[in-house]
Specification:
alpha/beta, Rossmann fold, 3 domains, 19 helices
């Protein structure tokens, strides 16, 4: 189908993809089971023919050997077909899960979305918790389609740190280019999923590239393997040509095999551990190569994507040819798995095969290894851009924000139209928002549950997305580079002996100190979002305290917003000239003789004119006694 251009078309696209893969799973599973029975039957027949050949049953020894050879070949062919079917079934299963998660993301069904676990830096934990950035139902979970460790780390760092206007523009151009490439992005993610499904992954591979050689301190093992290999080759030549007595040739060969067997018993396990770090399956290296191929062959036009491609293309120091060379070595290492096991055992006894393969790998590592981290870092950045592009493709009605260079004090403003909360589903209610210029504060008043906190989080989350280079949930959105600080979901700590009120005071003190220490040359403007602060004291003292806190932030040229139930806050001496007031309200209706309260979540100018606490008491049966 064509590229989806509406949210409804996006959902239909993923539903069709899911149905197709589920049908593939049903067909593959049925065929796979039948071929499995055939594979097992051929193996049993092969064993039976082999036994009959050894027994020379009915004096048909030669016939049984021929039959067993035919059955062996048939078994190998069927086993190969069976493995290919297993790969196809695995691929369809991964794709099915991917499309199911894409539908869940569109509906914001967080419990149906699986992402890689990440650690939240302690200094970022308050903002992450307040704005839902890295937790269970969060920006990270919305974007978390990255699967390689470096891709996930890149995405996390972008959420935490953001970027300045020049870098944001580069990312936006790259995301815009990747946005319509639904099929390409699905295939790219599929390869990443297949890599992470295996025992090892890019991070372990990179660690191996930067680690000391296995042969460091064990050089004698390699030299002994080389010596026994020469003895085995010479003995085989003498055995075939008859240049020396047979007993000497066989004796030398047996001695070499005994030494190699002993070294294999002692060292093969640790060598195989290295092989498993590099690639636990024979096809893993091919996945790496295919990923690099996909990235370098993408017809990139944006400066960002072209820059990432430059280190991965087919050049002498590029990722593609060197990973292909390593892939061939990995194929030799993985002879012990599957088809080549018998040949591997022969080579292991004759030459100590593992040592020679590892030596070739470590020679590759000495020449190329230091570049590997850069390759996978570029791949991780490409993966993070694909995550942003997926959000842009899945939300075609969202827009790229305008992030301006650092402005002068009088120009720092956040302005958005139809701003909605990105983590809510399609039922979200958008509002027009303006914060700034410096010297002002947006004061949001309104009843309980009317939408005040949601508005603050809507602005905060969209700012985080904007500074990642992503689209935002708005009709339009403009902002300067910003550093966000929040106080929204403060909790007390019995373990630390800190009350709710004291915990909130400490958080507010930290925000004010950050504002004071905000260097005038810092390209980021300070933005604060304070939600119902200082609830743990009486109303009169709370009003004075809140006014002082906000005044200190304004005096430091910070911009921001505060939500409150205190309808008189805007009239205090400190804030009456600075407040830009807006409010949310509730509506009451009679339904079947009962009073029902509803909210339209639409922001209006001015201070709220109503409260609903007493009405809520009546609605739950705690009103006046009759």
């Amino acid at each position: 189908m064509n590229v989806p251009t509406t949210p409804e078309q996006v959902l239909e696209y993923y539903r069709e993809k899911l149905a197709h893969e589920q049908d593939s799973i049903r067909r593959c599973a049925g065929r796979w089971s039948r071929v499995a029975y055939l594979r097992g039957g051929l193996f049993l027949l092969f064993l039976a023919a082999l036994l009959l050949g050894f027994a020379d049953a009915w004096e048909l020894g030669t016939v049984w050997w021929i039959v067993s050879a035919v059955l062996c070949i048939a078994f190998l062919v069927v086993a190969f077909i069976h493995e290919e079917m297993q790969t196809e079934l695995r691929r369809a299963t991964i794709l099915s899960n991917m499309h199911r998660e894409s539908i869940a993301r569109c509906h914001r069904n967080w419990e149906k979305i699986a992402v890689n676990e990440i650690d939240v830096p302690p200094e970022f934990a308050p903002i992450s918790k307040d704005l839902d950035l890295l937790g269970p139902s969060s920006v990270y979970k919305l974007l978390g389609v990255t699967r390689t460790p470096l891709g996930t780390e890149t995405l996390k760092n972008w959420i935490i740190c953001g970027a300045l206007s020049d870098e944001i523009k580069l990312r936006q151009d790259a995301v815009a280019e990747l946005k319509p490439e639904f099929e390409w992005r699905i295939n790219f993610r599929l390869l990443c999923e297949q890599l992470t499904a295996s025992q090892s992954g890019p991070s372990r591979f990179v660690q191996w590239c930067e680690s000391p050689n296995w042969f460091a301190g064990r050089t004698w093992v390699l030299w002994l393997a080389r010596m026994t290999s020469l003895i085995s080759i010479a003995a085989l030549l003498f055995f075939v040509t008859g240049l020396i007595p047979l007993v000497f040739a066989v004796g030398a060969l047996l001695a070499s095999c005994v030494i190699n067997f002993a070294m294999s018993v002692v060292y093969a396990g640790s060598i195989h551990d290295v092989f498993n770090i590099i690639s636990s399956r024979t096809d893993q290296a091919s996945h790496y190569v295919t990923l690099f191929d996909m990235v370098s062959e993408f017809p990139a036009k944006s400066e960002k994507l072209q820059g990432l491609q430059s280190r991965l293309k087919r050049t002498e120091n590029g990722a593609q040819p060197n990973m292909q060379r390593l892939g061939r070595l990995i194929a030799l290492a993985n002879m012990r798995n599957g088809w080549g096991f018998a040949l591997y055992m022969i080579f292991e006894f004759l030459f100590f095969w593992d040592a020679h393969v590892l030596d070739l790998m470590e020679r590759w590592k000495a020449r190329i290894g230091p570049r590997a981290r850069g390759w996978f870092a570029d791949l991780g950045e490409w993966e993070a851009l694909c995550a942003l592009a997926k959000l842009a493709g899945d939300q075609p009605d969202w827009v790229f924000p305008s992030v301006q260079p650092a402005p002068s004090n009088g120009q720092a403003m956040v302005v958005g139209t139809k701003v909605g909360h990105p983590l809510l589903d399609e039922k979200r209610v958008p509002n027009d928002v303006q914060m700034g210029p410096p010297g002002t504060v947006l004061l949001v008043t309104g009843s309980n549950m009317s939408g005040k906190s949601t508005l603050l989080r809507s602005v905060g989350v969209n700012i985080v997305l904007a500074q990642m280079g992503s689209v935002v949930c708005a009709g339009s959105f403009s902002l300067p580079p910003l550093h966000i600080e929040t106080s929204m979901r403060i909790a007390d700590s019995l373990a630390d002996g800190v009350s709710f009120f004291m915990a909130e005071l400490k958080r507010l003190k930290s925000i004010v100190d950050i504002a004071k220490n905000h260097d005038g040359d810092n390209p980021r403007r300070m933005l604060f979002l304070l939600d119902e602060i200082l609830q743990g004291t009486n109303s009169r003292e709370r009003q004075i305290a809140v006014s002082r806190v906000v005044k200190k932030l304004i005096d430091e040229n910070a911009i921001g917003a505060i939500s409150t139930h205190d309808l008189d806050l805007a009239t205090t001496e400190e804030l009456k000239k600075a407040c830009q007031t807006v409010h949310f309200s509730e509506q009451f209706h009679e339904v079947d003789g009962k009073k029902v309260m509803t909210f339209d979540y639409e922001m209006r100018a001015g201070i709220a004119e109503t409260t609903n606490a007493l009405k809520l008491l009546e609605m739950v049966g705690l009103g006046k006694d009759k």
